[in-house]
Specification:
- With about 160 residues, the chain is of the alpha+beta class.
- The protein has a single domain, classed as Alpha-D-Glucose-1,6-Bisphosphate, Chain A, domain 4 (2-Layer Sandwich).
- It contains 3 helices and 7 strands, in the order E-H-H-E-E-E-E-E-E-H.
- A 7-stranded antiparallel beta sheet has the order 1-7-6-5-4-3-2.
- A hairpin with a 2-residue loop joins strand 6 and strand 7.
Length: about 160
């Protein structure tokens, strides 16, 4: 299996509470995040949302493949941290951390993942740059969609730092 670690930072001129609300409303991702094709709740969390919720998401970008992931929310600390354990064609941990300043909100996403699909493992030695590009593109689409949906300005997005 090939392993990847990504760090993406989205800075938007919007209050933390609004950014948190949109990021935690996973079922709405297809409405604003280009690349997210579909989201289904497989199991609701104890409070109907948040900790323990299991989502299935389908992702697609410019590369000629789609990914389906199941993600269970394993840490939920509103309004600053949400973490999920992913399984499926990729397996690993993704964590959103949110910080607020006078300029707006920084949403930092760390994604430590490994490929599980045989085709991705086989291609990893030569396709790593394409997989990294794909991740960065999907994250850029997310940052742009978040800012647009919130009616906010996107301030210098940094991807895969």
């Amino acid at each position: 299996m090939a392993s990847y670690s990504f760090l993406s930072t989205w800075c938007v001129s919007a209050p933390l509470e609004r950014v948190w609300a949109l990021l935690c409303d996973v079922e709405r991702y297809p409405d604003w995040w280009k690349g997210v094709r579909k989201v289904d709740v497989l199991e609701p969390g104890a409070d109907g949302r948040g900790l323990g919720t299991l989502y299935r998401t389908q992702w697609r970008s410019r590369l000629p493949y789609s990914l389906t992931l199941d993600t269970r929310i394993t840490r939920y600390e509103p309004p600053h941290l949400v973490e999920g354990q992913a399984s499926g064609e990729l397996a690993g941990i993704g964590t959103w951390r949110l910080y607020e300043s006078s300029a707006g909100t920084a949403a930092i996403y760390s994604w430590d993942v490994r490929t599980t699909a045989a085709s991705m493992n086989w291609l990893a030695p030569i396709a790593r740059p394409a997989f990294t590009y794909n991740h960065d593109l999907v994250m850029r689409w997310g940052a742009e969609g978040l800012a647009r949906t919130l009616g906010a300005e996107l301030i210098a997005p940094r991807l895969n730092v």
